[in-house]
Amino acid sequence: MAFLDWFRRPPPIADRDALAEFIDSNAAFLVQKGIYEYSRARAGHYAKVMFGEQMFIDAFDRARWQTYPLGLAMVGELVEGVLRGSGGSDPQRSLEWVRALVLSVFDSHPLPAQVGASAWRDARAELALRLQHVGLHPPKRAMDIPEPLAKTYFNLMPIHEKLRGRDFPTTHNYLKITMCNIHDELTRRMDIAALSRVLPRTAPAP
């Protein structure tokens, strides 16, 4: 990265590919940062040693892939809610478009060896169902989106359940704060008018 790149504003999100990249990168960031920070906090002074152990590295990789579909569900719901709230397109068509786009992001990743084919297929099916259910209620606030998934996310941490203690509220708060930050970036960069023009003619196959 060139020095001046640090001072440039990120480009607007004005087409399908830019929105797909935003969803992918933020879903991965949301779940992976939480896993890393929580694991480091629980390990304390032994974090450096633990992160160098192959057994933990394997557990960390497995956890990040297991939680990635949860990140896609949360960021996908956020994107759908912003589009629906803008009033720039038909809500049902917008939902179908976002659902198909998020599933195409999921499908862009090769099968993770740490998860296995059967579990990966199940994760996709659950993701598709969660995205479909988004249309059954009004758009949520960003901080409320993690509510139904936070416990599942916490239970997938690569830390033995006996060592987790009463840490769920901290993890839940992390998800809420990070989703608010993602929402701020999305609304700052999203070109609603451009996406509303693109949406009707570029609906990706689910």
Please, could you describe this protein's structure?
This protein has helices spanning 16-43, 47-50, 54-86, 91-107, 117-133, 150-155, 168-189, 192-198. The relative contact order is 0.18. The chain starts with 15 loop residues before the first helix and ends in an 8-residue tail after the last helix. Helix 4 runs antiparallel to helix 5 (117-133). The radius of gyration is 18 Å and the shape is globular. It has one domain. It has 206 residues and is mostly helical.
Topology overview:
Layout lengths: L15 H28 L3 H4 L3 H33 L4 H17 L9 H17 L16 H6 L12 H22 L2 H7 L8
Helix pairs in contact: 1-3, 1-4, 1-7, 3-4, 3-5, 3-7, 4-5
Give helix and strand order, one letter per element, not per position: HHHHHHHH
Rg (CA only) = 18 Å
Described by strand count, sense and barrel closure, the largest sheet is: none
The beta-strand count equals 0
Spatial separation of the terminal alpha carbons: 35 Å
Question: Helix count, per DSSP?
Answer: 8
